[in-house]
């Protein structure tokens, strides 16, 4: 019996028995009317909007239609045809309850953060102004709040003042990373707002500059050596941030973490900074997870600024990674939620979930396809290449291509297309990522739009069909 204002879930014959109890549970839990429409197709993954428009009748009492996640085409066509909202659900019906609960929710607000990022340009005096500004712009676009001008040991760099004036005129906030008096004084005169770093060796002249400093202990192993430094800074009215110094793994890393905790205990209201590059740059491991853990530590300890850099190749995205991490940890802590299902931007090698067709679904799909266009799927056990001529499966994409080529003509553009897609499928299989034909792999915040449709062969009419739409060839 239908009810007014019902939500209609559309599926194929094969998935209907599994979908119906899920939809019933959704209706009961949310106290809404639900219906399931089973269309004349075995495998829902083969649906196309144009085919659905011809085959589905939507009753007047339906207020929303939800199609399978694999359904291809422009949903706006269906919304206009039936004058109801049409949504594409998840690609795996097992995700439907979670997707349904969140379909109308705004995503978590990750606009807020309270940790500043100082992005260091190493060897800055050696760079031309154009390159300096290019790097600063890149850092700022990926989340940096300060551009840290990193000087070099040795002779005084005479171009410090000029460089920093250029950075300031371009709108960047700048810190100066040097112990040389002439370099620091030139930087401050040119507009630098923060000096890295101050200890007893340079307090005599640094306090006269009346500029905020990052204070470090004279002896990294002994926080008591902070006391005389802070006493002089406070007496001079110079603002400061405390940095007990994060040590690399194998050189006192755990003990240095304990010093950050102890520094916060001793000076509960002091501003603090952490130089995270000693871990991200000096440990041969992908930096995203490292940056998240360090951001979480900073968030919980109230460390409100970090110094990072992007010198080594595996840390080349550290600024953006820390930007995402500081937003996620801020949200998790302020909202008292686990940092899970908030944002997948830091998941690059793995995907949050991977859904694959079952053997039964692949079998049904193989026997339903009647056109020459290839469908590609990646499962844990094998790659699958399917069209009307057969079901080719295996772990060697080159072998799959050769087997397919033996049974049917493949044009050069089609060969290129299949090679590209099989390479993506193989990559997804190897890394444990979701592969969806004609869609880019998800690399988290590194994902880029891949518009190669100009090389994608269009659906061709099969000899025994009067239509070029693949879904109509499989009923």
UniProtKB/TrEMBL annotation:
It comes from the Bacteria. Pfam families: DUF6513. InterPro entries: Dihydropteroate_synth-like_sf, DUF6513, Pterin-binding_dom. GO terms for biological process: pteridine-containing compound metabolic process. Residues 465-475 have a biased composition (Low complexity). Residues 107-367 form the Pterin-binding domain. Residues 454-475 are annotated as: Disordered. This is Pterin-binding domain-containing protein. It comes from Rubinisphaera italica.
